[in-house]
């Protein structure tokens, strides 16, 4: 699909977003981010991965992360979706001090339909996702089997888990739909 980076998609498309947190109540930060994403106009969360605890990468002298991924249906163009994510990060207390440093919340746009783009503000697919088990394992939970990168994600995930060197452990499974629905009476 050839989507403009500035205009709304002609029809809703599926995008995949990675989430991470390693400060404060990590799970609460993740759940709030998912809820806020789902409440944005033109975005609907359709699938949520398990929550994985992962060792930090890059700058390693910091607490472990909780990571997950979500699939969303969106009418927003890629750059609009990215900018929405950045606004949400800021609203949820993200302060950018050092690359790969501790954070309350991190939202990374991994895939947007089958769009490939390389701009200063956004590169799709995410340029380093295939190197990171903390991204691939949760993404594997939610990526559609019909997505062109599904097989590559599956193969790379299996290799990363078999190697066992990436410090990733299933921390918790959640049911987004039942967790997000109001309790009935």
From TrEMBL:
Source organism, top-level taxon: Bacteria
Catalytic reaction annotation: 6-hydroxymethyl-7,8-dihydropterin + ATP = (7,8-dihydropterin-6-yl)methyl diphosphate + AMP + H(+)
Domain 7,8-dihydro-6-hydroxymethylpterin-pyrophosphokinase per the UniProt entry, residue ranges: 99-110
Coiled coil: none
BP GO terms, sorted: folic acid biosynthetic process; tetrahydrofolate biosynthetic process
InterPro entries from the UniProt entry: Hppk, Hppk_sf
Gene Ontology molecular function: 2-amino-4-hydroxy-6-hydroxymethyldihydropteridine diphosphokinase activity; ATP binding; kinase activity
Pathway: Cofactor biosynthesis; tetrahydrofolate biosynthesis; 2-amino-4-hydroxy-6-hydroxymethyl-7,8-dihydropteridine diphosphate from 7,8-dihydroneopterin triphosphate: step 4/4
EC number(s) per entry: 2.7.6.3
Listed SUPFAM superfamilies: 6-hydroxymethyl-7,8-dihydropterin pyrophosphokinase, HPPK (SSF55083)
Keyword field contains ATP-binding: yes
Class in the EC hierarchy, top level: transferase
Keyword Nucleotide-binding attributed: yes
Pfam families, A to Z: HPPK
Keywords recorded for this protein, A-Z: ATP-binding, Folate biosynthesis, Kinase, Nucleotide-binding, Transferase
Protein name as catalogued: 2-amino-4-hydroxy-6-hydroxymethyldihydropteridine diphosphokinase
Lineage, highest ranks first: Bacteria, Bacillati, Bacillota, Bacilli, Bacillales
């Amino acid at each position: 699909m050839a989507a403009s980076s500035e205009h709304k998609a002609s029809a809703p498309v599926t995008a995949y977003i990675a989430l991470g947190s390693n400060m404060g109540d990590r799970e609460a930060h993740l759940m709030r981010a998912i809820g806020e994403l789902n409440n944005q106009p033109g975005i609907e969360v359709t699938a949520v991965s398990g929550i994985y605890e992962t060792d930090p990468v890059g700058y390693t002298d910091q607490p472990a992360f909780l990571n997950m991924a979500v699939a969303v249906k969106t009418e927003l163009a890629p750059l609009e979706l990215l900018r929405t994510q950045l606004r949400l990060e800021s609203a949820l207390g993200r302060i950018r001090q050092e690359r790969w440093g501790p954070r309350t919340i991190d939202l990374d746009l991994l895939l947007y339909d089958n769009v490939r783009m390389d701009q200063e503000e956004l590169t799709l697919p995410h340029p380093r996702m295939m190197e990171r088990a903390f991204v691939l394992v949760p993404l594997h939970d939610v990526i559609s089997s019909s997505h062109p990168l599904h097989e590559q994600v599956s193969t790379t995930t299996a290799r990363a888990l078999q190697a066992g060197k990436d410090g990733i452990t299933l921390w918790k499974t959640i049911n987004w739909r039942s967790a997000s629905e109001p309790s009935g009476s």
